[in-house]
Write a structure and sequence with these properties.
disordered N terminus
Length: 215
């Protein structure tokens, strides 16, 4: 039963490693013929003088399509990233720019986060009992060619029975360009960071379970 979580851990943790020098575009683009992009646009019907045309019916009207965004090989086909609720009895969801964990208080996650971040080379800018902020760090995914830098805020709340951790992306740049307004990239890099923490916490939970005395 331990093989499946291990495979998931390896796969997700690899997302935040520095990108290799080789081109990763093949992981994002459609493999196929995009000659459809060369289709000529529709032209307005020119009716000769004296010719009576049938009455127009809206059911058959073809609306002009305006190109907005990437097309062809520049289309990014990567699916959205979902937050992992890897801890026992936990729930995880994304709410706008925040990723939230709702978990039982059986494992104290807050005290373990600084060590998890240090293990991934992520420096802490500030830290108190309710909030931790990271310094700007390189978080480029292996399926991106462009270097990405991000900073995060992690907030924590515990009501005794349940504990709640919220991850917010504070800044996101690509090659020095601010891309916080890109909702797709915002989701990828906030959820990836959240999942990195959750998988590390899951490993701690599994280690504690394996080393607990058998009754």
């Amino acid at each position: 039963m331990l093989k499946k979580p291990t495979l998931v851990t390896i796969s997700v943790l690899s997302l935040l490693l520095a990108a290799c020098s080789t081109n990763q575009r093949y992981k994002r683009e459609i493999n196929g013929n995009d000659n459809y992009l060369n289709t000529p646009p529709l032209k307005k019907l020119s009716v000769p003088e004296g010719l009576v045309m049938p009455i127009e019916v809206d059911d058959y009207y073809i609306n002009p399509i305006l190109k907005d965004g990437n097309t062809g090989k520049n289309v990014d086909i990567r699916p959205p990233i979902q937050p992992l609720a890897s801890l026992s009895g936990s729930y995880a969801y994304r709410d706008h720019n925040s990723v939230v964990l709702d978990a039982p208080s059986s494992i104290n996650i807050w005290d373990k986060i600084p060590a998890i971040l240090a293990g991934h080379g992520i420096n802490i800018q500030s830290h108190n009992a309710q909030e931790l902020r990271t310094a700007v760090t390189n978080v480029t995914r292996v399926d991106d060619d462009i270097s990405h830098q991000a900073s995060y805020a992690i907030t924590y709340r515990n009501n005794g029975a349940r504990q709640y951790m919220t991850v917010n992306l504070i800044s996101l740049t690509a090659n020095g360009r601010d891309i916080m307004g890109n909702k797709t990239e915002n989701q990828r890099y906030s959820v990836d960071f959240f999942n990195m923490i959750l998988l590390a916490l899951k490993k701690i939970e599994m280690d504690q379970t394996n080393t607990a005395p058998q009754l």
